[in-house]
Write a structure and sequence with these properties.
Layout (H helix, E strand, L loop, with lengths): L3 H22 L2 E12 L9 H10 L6 E7 L2 H6 L6 E3 L10 E6 L3 E4 L8 E2 L12 E8 L4 E9 L7 H17 L7 E6 L14 H10 L5 E3 L7 E3 L2 E3 L2 E6 L3 E2 L3 E2 L16 H7 L6 E6 L1
Parallel strand pairs: 1-2, 8-9
Antiparallel strand pairs: 1-16, 2-4, 3-4, 5-7, 6-7, 7-8, 9-13, 10-13, 11-12, 14-16, 15-16
């Protein structure tokens, strides 16, 4: 018979080993969505590169994946990111197009859907193809193990286009529903250009309408709650940038760069609204710390 003391020690060691294994199995990562107003439009006049490079390094939470919106010059954006980062987007449909760009750190890799040939949900661009399509990919670890799906979006702007945004969300939902057999959890992130009722000519806020559209395909997703503004200029503030995630995910309160919600408007640097709008953007980066 094993002595009681030795038996207790073995139980303790096994329990500790199982606990550590459980902790190591948890996946923790950070995704940021960031609309950089018309970045690279008239590229010879683009003067923000040094400011943006410093801002991304010093003022944006350390991120594993970043969804960028309004990127006109995609190669130029890659030049201000760390050299180890990789990005995907889509060909320019017309001059001045505001691309959605999806980038990852060396911690992860992107894997194309087996049934896809371009990492794009083309129908989200609308019947004439003049809106922004959605990007989609599988996120893997460096060994190629599938972890989750991500969909990056920049939905149709302006209050009167609520129905267009809902239609875009329905297209995304239909696409994801066809892929449900793989059971990978999903993150849908980006600039959704959401407005509240009745400004959107509806009786329900855009955020709720989009969530209902996603869950019409039984995707079991929820909107990460946020009451703060994500867009700010001298003309006003708005809440455009969001994360819709599978219920399997746990998400900490979103982190939003403070200028979009600060009363301070006359300090030097990024807390001066006029300077921020000139040197960085009219949107603030929004970061989600997510665990699975």
């Amino acid at each position: 018979m094993m002595p009681v003391k030795i038996s207790f020690i073995l139980i303790f060691i096994l329990s500790f080993t199982c606990l550590k294994a459980s902790e190591s199995a948890q996946l923790n990562f950070t995704i940021t969505t960031f609309n950089i107003k018309f970045y690279g439009y008239h590229s010879e006049q683009e003067k923000r590169d040094p400011f943006l490079q410093t801002f991304l390094k010093d003022s944006v939470p350390a991120s594993d994946i970043i969804v960028f919106e309004e990127i006109v010059d995609v190669p130029r954006l890659k030049n201000i990111l760390p050299s180890q980062w990789s990005c995907l987007s889509y060909p320019t449909p017309y001059e001045g197009h505001q691309h959605v760009v999806l980038c990852h750190s060396p911690r992860f890799k992107f894997m194309r859907e087996p049934s896809d040939n371009n990492d794009v949900i083309d129908e989200v661009a609308g019947e004439r193809g003049t809106w922004r399509p959605a990007l989609t990919t599988i996120v893997t670890d460096t060994s190629g193990k599938k972890l989750f799906r991500i969909v990056a979006v920049h939905l149709k702007a302006l209050p009167e286009y609520s129905k267009a945004r809902v239609a875009q969300a329905e297209i995304i939902a239909g696409y994801l529903e066809k892929l449900k057999s793989s059971k990978l959890p999903v993150v849908v992130a980006g600039d959704f250009n959401t407005f509240k009722a009745p400004e959107n000519n509806e009786t329900v806020n855009d955020k709720e309408l989009i969530l209902n559209s996603l869950n019409s395909a039984h995707l079991d997703m929820h909107l990460v709650p946020n009451d703060l503004f994500t867009f700010r200029t001298s003309y006003g503030q708005a809440q455009f940038d969001h994360f819709f995630v599978s219920d399997a995910f746990k998400v900490n309160p979103l982190k939003i760069f403070e200028i979009c919600n600060s009363a301070i408007t006359n300090d030097a640097g990024n807390l001066d609204l006029a300077l921020y709008n000139k040197n960085i953007s009219d949107h603030c980066p929004v970061s989600a710390e997510i665990s699975l």
